[in-house]
Amino acid sequence: AAIIETSYIEPRAEYCSLGFGYGINNRLRHYGPFEDGSRWEKKFKDRMKPWRVRESGPVVIMGQMPGDMALKQFVNFYDWTARTFNELVALGHEVKFRPHPNASPHHLKRTGMRVRKWQKSVVHADEDALWRGLLQAIDEGMEIETSKQPLLEYLDEAKFVVTFNSNSGVDAVLSGCPAYAADPGSMAWDMTARELGVIVTPDREAWARWLSWCQWTREELESGEAWEHACPPHLR
Questions:
Q1: How far apart are CA 225 and CA 236, in angstroms?
Q2: Hey, is 180 helix, strand or coil?
Q3: In sequence order, which ranges of 91-162 are alpha helices (DSSP H)?
């Protein structure tokens, strides 16, 4: 099956991802002339900034949309958030949580002990279980970031970023902010730390070339150019 989804590199409104199989993101198979850097150089090169390592600043746990299909099979995201928050605090870090842009930070503010859902129906079998980790983490002192500061500006102030498998891991790595991803389904997986709290700054060139061949414009899909390069060989 060909899976077409939201793209990975900005401007995300102008591209869509293309992979093959029955998973999502890095669980799909991607094809292309990955050794060819021309697509990266022409379209995306300016997105990558030098690595930076900060001695201070917050560690930011990146939110994901409740019920996200990239999460549902693998984790209760807010339970994972609570565990991760406690692990980071135990390591001595200042920790903040930045909500997913489609899950307004206002629903994460505590009103007494109630949390307003981001929508009426959430793709989860047990909604109480879905939210319990968020309430627990708030009670234990996790700060919810409610500013409207653009993501790239926010990343510039972060010590490092922690994600489960959010595309914000890609944003962080391209911006030069070190990252940790908990799930191999993350498109940033190969560029992120395997141990929470460890800073890694690997060479990103081969990864960037690969990523550039994983997303296409609508025009490239319609013209057949995307299929010529990104299809499994036996389907070309």
A1: 11
A2: strand
A3: 127-139, 151-156
